[in-house]
């Protein structure tokens, strides 16, 4: 049991940022990451400059291909981009897509994607470049509208890596947690109302939590978002100026909005659960009958398809992936421990 509790605690660290300052150990880890990034940057500084978009030289018709048998690890987001019909999984080794019952993957641009967020015309992400790409590390904030073949450098290229990022599906709102200062931001939670044209730090008055975690933006109303924290889930309808706790949940590890509902995964008495909340009716919640998950395997990401109410998916820290097309009443398992088997 102690071993499981440690894994559960580790899972939440994966989806939470402590508001207080870094400990000495954390500071050392940050310095090690910075040193690694510096060394990687020195390796590419004599290569040609890549000031424009990052585009694969693989032709578009060959860029997406059948996925090889493999084990996916280090997933940092799932979602349903509006310019495709399937479920995307952002992994340590590029994008994987489950489309019409088959696993596909990109032939290139196999970067370590972080903060993956699907939108109606593609996706936003952050992360680190694949080895040998000749790109600055980290990637900053990037966007793609062609299934990952072309990556547009939106902001902070070579400066920042955003693990906690959220984008409005049908609107221009972007939210992110900046964990380390960069050229224009201190630490904190920031909002852009114009797809990263400008940024403002948000107050989050009423957020009675010692941690920050996953942000889920409503697909149509960019002023409405939820934040999952160790102390529960908090909601706002005014772009984060004021926050209010929803329900009595604790240890909420994942959250996602559909047009009508907010889906969350809290841990209750060491049991992994999922609830559907009605943001317009305070206290209205419904527990969903998800497959049994051991207490060392909490849900880390939830995705809801704004185009198809009731189509939702979730993935766990051990990379078990499930999808439902009836609002969470029945589930189909797509991955076991991240293994793609064709």
Write up what this structure looks like.
The chain is built from 3 helices and 31 strands. By secondary structure, the protein is mainly beta. It has helices at 2-14, 24-44, 60-63, and strands at 16-18, 54-55, 64-66, 70-71, 78-79, 87-91, 94-99, 102-106, 112-119, 122-128, 141-144, 150-155, 165-167, 174-178, 188-192, 200-201, 211-213, 215-217, 225-229, 232-236, 244-245, 252-257, 262-268, 271-272, 275-277, 285-287, 299-304, 312-316, 321-324, 332-335, 339-340. The longest helix is centred in the N-terminal third of the chain and has 21 residues, at 24-44. Mean pLDDT is 89; it is low at 6-27 and 40-50. Helices cover 11% and strands 37% of the residues. It is globular and about 50 Å long. It has a 5-stranded antiparallel sheet with strand order 2-12-11-10-9, with no helix packed on it. A hairpin with a 7-residue loop joins strand 5 (78-79) and strand 6. The chain has one domain: TolB, C-terminal domain (Neuraminidase, 6 Propeller), CATH 2.120.10.30.
Overall pLDDT = 89
Distance between the termini: 35 Å
The percent range for helix content is: 10-25%
CATH topology term: Neuraminidase
Strand order of the largest sheet: 2-12-11-10-9
- Rg calc: 19 Å
- What is the highest CATH level, the class? Mainly Beta
The CATH architecture: 6 Propeller
Write the CATH homologous superfamily: TolB, C-terminal domain
Helix/strand structural class: mainly beta
Tell how many strands the DSSP assignment holds: 31
Uncertain ranges: 6-27, 40-50
Overall geometric form? globular
β-strand percent reads: 35-45%
Number of helices: 3
